[in-house]
Amino acid sequence: MHTSARWSALLLAPAVLLVAICFVVPIGSIVLRSFTEPELGLATYERLFADPTTLRVLGRTLLVALGAVGLCLLFGYPYAYLMTLVGPDMRAVLMVLVLVPFWTSLMARTFAWVSLLQRDGPVSALLAFAGVPGVTLLGTAAGVMIGMVQILLPYMVLTLSTTLSRIDRGLLTAAQSLGANRYRTFFQVYLPLSLPGVFAGSALVFILALGFYITPQLLGSPRESLIAQVIGVRVERLVDFAGAGGLSLIVLLTTALCLAAAVLAFRPVRAMLGQGGDRR
Amino acid sequence: MRSTTKILALSATAALALSGCGGGGGESGDGSQLTFASYGSEYQDAQNDSLLTPWAEEAGVTVTNDSPTSYPRIAQMVDAGQVTWDVVDTEPFYPVANCGTYVEELDFSNIDTSQFPEGTWSDCSIPFAQYATIMVYDAEQFAQAPQDFEAFFDVEAYPGTRLVPNWAGGGALEVALLADGVAPEELYPLDLDRAFAKLDTIRDHLQFWDTSSESQQALEDGTVDLALVWSGRAYEAELNGSTFEPVWQDALLAWASLSIIKDSPNLEAAQSLIEYAAQAEPQARFAERQPYSPANLEAQPELDEVQEKYNVAAPEVQDQAIVTDVQYWADHNDEANEAWTAWSTS
């Protein structure tokens, strides 16, 4: 046991180093600047919180991320569920359909949405055909959400399908044989067993959504700007490294707080539902 | 466990050494080479053909190109004492705002500034080419050509979407104030609140561009009806079949500025390039390649019909144009951009 622990540490070393050099060092140095420039203290944070843009855009970013989580669950859960019902061939097809977007660059996909959603574009024409003429989704919150959900959905589906495929369907038969109807079987047996996957997928999508930059930049108007874009303006237009570092730390802490709150909220739910389904 | 720690420490040292030493040194500093940073694509190609290559041959210097110009990158390299750029093409406010801190003061003993329009050169920069931020309108959409910026805010007479640059210095603030009745000579210092209030009156009709290629694309695709764009992009769009026409009244004059980065390792070569770039010939050659007009008014480029249509140096354009106040922008860029972000994101 002791030897294997030593080997694990050794094997982990390159990864730890990589994270330290590529993540901790740059983040640390830029966050440090937020406390030391122009002089030691919290002046940068006073400045950032006095700027109404900070809290407004931060709040918007959290809401958009939550919205993306909700929509990804709405589309991803049934899809992942379907993957557990079909045969191996069909499952492979469904899996490939999820993975295809991963093989295309985010940039290319976002530009594809630009031409689909722009004025007099295909989506606009389709809506006009369906009786809603004159709608342009490019430059709106809806446009941004469509682009984000399309990019984030695979993360939700892949995470969910891992959990759902491990759920023993015999338990559902058992519940029904004991007199539970389909709804009750789902809500009292299947859903609780799937919650770890729901939680993992949601956390992943939420964190990824908080950092979105290209998608809102290309599909939205400045009114849909997210925090990453505001950080970008601080660096590019204002050459304000301290402010950008400060904003980054604020986002980092907000994310950590949200996740901590989610974990705390999730614990009693799991206890209430009786041990959840994760028996690793 | 001890061996693991040792290996960790060793590899950490090695990795840090690798990552830390990569940027050291920079250039030789013996004057045989020079790095030029500009905005890339055909624009920088044209700068090479008209300016850098002829100069380099004459001076016996090897030129390296980099792009795009980035103010945070300049700040980083100067602050870290690892300057790898020598001459840089920037917006006109930048060398005025950062003269002596991030860009070098120039030696004007061999530069004739009398041929530059007033206000286009500074202690730290010379103008290489002129352009204008102008209103363009879709001639297929509107039979009646708009006369001035009031039309830009008149959604009754000119219904449709308006495209504007998405940063404070892009020109929308000046245009809003001019449309609101501020006299050109009283434009600066800008009344930001009044400008945003005016822009709010057409807020639901506004779209924004961040890169000039986006603005050109919008003109070519006809996804907007009126726009504030750089004259050069309107020219390019017209070549690609756009139906937009320029309005020159109150065009906002700006220019490409060349400066030397502070602590440039090849100061002498950089100064020599600046002196060469200030002359009429390279500027004329550049104007024949790109839709930007010479800043040296002595230059005599041979322009075709469409180039002539967008020639910012033409006397009739110069007469009705407004020269943007670089000193104002040098002093207020940060404050105005924070206000712009607060306005545009709400």
From TrEMBL, chain A:
Mode of membrane association: Multi-pass membrane protein
Compartment list: Cell membrane
Keywords for this protein: Cell membrane, Membrane, Transmembrane, Transmembrane helix, Transport
Gene3D superfamilies with a match to the protein in the record: MetI-like (1.10.3720.10)
Superkingdom, natural source: Bacteria
Protein name: ABC transporter permease
GO cellular component: plasma membrane
PROSITE patterns to which the protein is assigned, alphabetical: ABC_TM1
Predominant subcellular localization, coarse grouping: membrane
Residues in ABC transmembrane type-1 domain copies: 58-265
Record GO biological process: transmembrane transport
UniProtKB/TrEMBL annotation, chain B:
Record's keyword annotation contains Ligase: no
Main location: periplasm
InterPro entries to which the protein is assigned, alphabetical: SBP
Pfam families: SBP_bac_8 (PF13416)
Superkingdom, taxonomy of origin: Bacteria
Subcellular location: Periplasm
Name this polypeptide is given: ABC transporter
Keyword Acetylation: no
Keyword terms: Periplasm, Signal, Transport
One of the GO BP terms on file: thiamine transport
Gene Ontology molecular function: thiamine binding; thiamine pyrophosphate binding
Endpoints of the signal sequence: 1-17
Organism of this sequence: Sediminivirga luteola
Record-level GO cellular component terms: outer membrane-bounded periplasmic space
